[in-house]
C-alpha cells in the first residue's frame, strides 16, 4: 500500500469501527447444564414440600396438568398420573395452561390454572385443591376471574405475603383481541396486556377479596405483550415481579422483572443498569432460545423456566436455575 493511500485507509477503518460497535457480550447466565426436562414441559410452576420438589406444566395432550418430581432439583422424574384429572364445570376443558401450586397455612394445596371457558369464547382462571402436592386436585366449580371484555385471563401464580395475605397474579390476555401482527397485537391500536393482582381468602386460596388491581402493563420495549407473572418477596423486603415479554413464538421472547416496596406498587421495571432482561435468546453459551415462563419458588432462590428445543415452540423444555438479589439487581445461575 502506498503512503498516499494509507491515510485514506486509516480514515475508512476508523469510520467503520466507530459506526459499527461490537455487540454486547452477556454474562448473566453463561454456563449451561442443559434442560432439566427434555420433553415438552412449558410454563412450569414449582413448589418444594419437605425434601421434594414438584414441577407442573401446561397440558401435554395426555394430561391436563403433567407434573414431575425431584429430590435434588437436578434429576427430575415425570409423574404417571394427571395432577388435574378434570377441570372446573365452567370450562370446556381445552387449552389448560400455565399451572401454579401454593400451600396454604392450613396445609391445603391449591393449583391455579388457565382453561377455555365453557362457550369457548375466552380463557379464564380456575383453582383446584388437594391434600397432596402431586394431586389429584379437585377443581372448584366456578372460575376465579375471566375479564372476558378485555380479552380473558391467563397465567395465574399464587403468592403469600409475610403477613399471611394471599394473592393471585395473572395476565389479562388483551392480545387475544388484538388487531393482528406479532402475537396478534402488533397492529395499532395496541391492546393492553396488564399484569393484575387479586387478593383471595387465605383459608381457601380462591374466594376473591375486593377487586383486582393493575401492577404493570406492556410498553414499547416489551413488544406486543407482557405475561407469565411470578411474584416473590426478597429477604430485604423488596417485592420482585418476574414476567416475560415479546411473543413466545420467536427469538425476542425474554424474561425480566420489576420491583416495588409494596405488593400493590408502584412497580418499576428493571432496566439495563439493573441487569435486565434476566434471560434472552443466546444465553447459556447459545443454548437458550426464547426463554420465558419463569417461576420463582417461595424460597426466593430456586427458579424454573422453559426454553424452546431448537428454534420453534413445538417443544418447550424445562430449565432450572438459582437467583441472587442485590438491591434491585437479579442475577441467575
Describe this structure in words.
By secondary structure, the protein is mostly beta strands. Helix content is 5%, strand content 37%. A 4-stranded antiparallel β-sheet has the order 1-2-3-4, with no helix packed on it. It has a 4-stranded antiparallel β-sheet with strand order 5-6-7-8, with no helix packed on it. A hairpin with a 7-residue loop joins strand 18 (302-308) and strand 19 (316-326). The chain is globular and about 45 Å long. Residues 1-28 have low confidence and may be disordered.
Q: Could you give a short account of the major beta sheet? A: 4 strands, antiparallel
Secondary-structure class: mainly beta
Identify the strand order in the major beta sheet: 1-2-3-4
Provide the low-confidence segments as ranges. Answer: 1-28
User: Count of DSSP helices?
Assistant: 1
Q: What is the number of strand segments?
A: 20
Strand content: 35-45%
Amino acid at each position: 500500500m502506498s503512503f498516499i493511500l494509507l491515510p485514506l485507509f486509516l480514515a475508512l477503518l476508523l469510520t467503520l469501527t466507530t459506526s459499527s460497535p461490537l455487540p454486547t457480550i452477556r454474562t448473566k447466565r453463561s454456563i449451561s447444564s442443559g434442560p432439566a426436562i427434555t420433553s415438552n414441559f412449558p410454563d412450569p410452576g414449582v413448589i418444594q414440600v419437605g425434601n421434594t420438589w414438584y414441577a407442573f406444566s401446561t397440558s401435554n395432550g395426555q394430561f391436563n396438568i403433567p407434573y414431575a418430581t425431584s429430590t435434588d432439583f437436578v434429576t427430575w422424574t415425570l409423574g404417571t398420573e394427571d395432577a388435574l384429572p378434570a377441570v372446573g364445570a365452567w370450562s370446556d376443558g381445552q387449552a389448560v395452561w400455565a399451572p401454579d401450586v401454593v400451600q396454604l397455612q392450613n396445609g391445603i394445596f391449591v393449583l391455579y390454572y388457565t382453561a377455555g371457558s365453557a362457550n369457548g369464547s375466552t380463557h379464564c382462571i380456575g383453582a383446584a385443591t388437594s391434600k397432596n402436592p402431586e394431586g389429584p386436585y379437585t377443581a372448584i366449580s366456578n372460575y376465579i376471574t375471566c375479564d372476558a371484555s378485555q380479552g380473558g385471563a391467563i397465567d395465574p401464580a399464587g403468592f403469600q405475603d409475610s403477613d399471611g395475605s394471599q394473592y393471585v397474579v395473572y395476565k389479562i390476555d388483551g392480545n387475544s383481541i388484538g388487531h393482528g401482527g406479532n402475537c396478534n397485537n402488533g397492529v395499532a391500536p395496541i391492546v393492553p396486556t396488564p399484569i393484575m393482582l387479586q387478593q383471595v381468602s387465605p383459608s381457601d386460596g380462591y374466594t376473591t377479596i375486593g377487586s383486582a388491581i393493575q401492577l404493570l402493563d406492556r410498553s414499547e420495549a416489551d413488544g406486543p405483550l407482557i405475561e407469565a407473572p411470578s411474584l416473590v418477596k426478597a429477604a430485604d423486603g423488596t417485592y420482585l415481579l418476574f414476567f416475560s415479554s415479546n411473543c413466545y413464538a420467536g427469538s425476542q421472547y425474554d424474561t425480566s422483572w420489576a420491583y416495588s416496596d409494596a405488593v400493590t406498587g408502584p412497580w418499576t421495571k428493571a432496566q439495563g443498569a439493573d441487569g435486565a432482561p434476566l434471560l434472552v435468546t443466546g444465553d447459556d453459551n447459545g443454548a437458550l432460545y426464547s426463554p420465558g415462563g419463569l417461576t420463582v419458588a417461595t424460597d426466593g432462590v430456586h427458579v424454573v423456566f422453559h426454553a424452546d428445543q431448537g428454534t420453534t415452540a413445538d417443544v418447550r423444555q424445562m430449565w432450572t436455575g438459582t437467583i441472587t438479589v442485590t438491591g434491585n439487581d437479579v442475577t441467575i445461575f
